[in-house]
Fold this protein.
Amino acid sequence: MFFTVLTIFPEMFDPFWSHGIIRRALEAKKIEASAVNIREFAEDRHQVTDDRPFGGGSGMVMKPEPLAAAIRATSQTMQGAKAVLLTPQGRIFDQQMARELASYEGLILICGRYEGVDERICHDLIDYEISIGDYVLTGGELAAMVLMDAVTRLIPGALGGEDAAEKDSFSDGLLEHAHYTRPRIFEAQAVPEVLLSGHHQEIENWRLESSVMRTLLKRPDLLQNKDLTPQESQILKKWRQA
Ligand code: ADE
């Protein structure tokens, strides 16, 4: 997976790329990543990337020419890549979308600033408009990092552990089960006995029950769109009655 970020603040990405799983995935060549400054594609002497809005009003709009040039130049070097505009007006990002994006060879992530980008950019040059939530950030950079983080975890081999991403919350429409580590008793709270038993099937059953119960308590909305297995339905029935 190739990520190219188009931004006026490429330095923001240096710390993101030099820590943890992302750093390891880069070092292991599971992903490649670079940030390109949109200013380099501005043709005027001052490398201006924004301008006042037609029709008046406050705030500035990102000019179309430098953005279009940056997207076209990047697309040419990244066959098979999809262009993603990060915007609060986009589709809300979720795990399913992360999986869809992880299936492409490359992503060009376009970070808006100011009030937004000139509308004419969106018609021919953008494949996805994506929002990371119903709130407005000062720019798309943090949203691009969120997206790259979630997508990288899904690239085979990026997490180290073989199937770690498959067991994540949301991967099967449920929240993940509760986790415990040592000590066995912490502030008078004991680890559930079954987890110490070494009995694989019972542990699996407990984990599924924990998963269903937590989803019911914390995110009941997730259960509305989910096809439950008979075992999950049974657990849900039990907890609904409790
Ligand atoms: N840019 C500003 N706010 C945003 C959001 N919520 N998601 C994606 N990009 C953004």
Remarks:
- Residues 200-218 form the longest helix (19 residues).
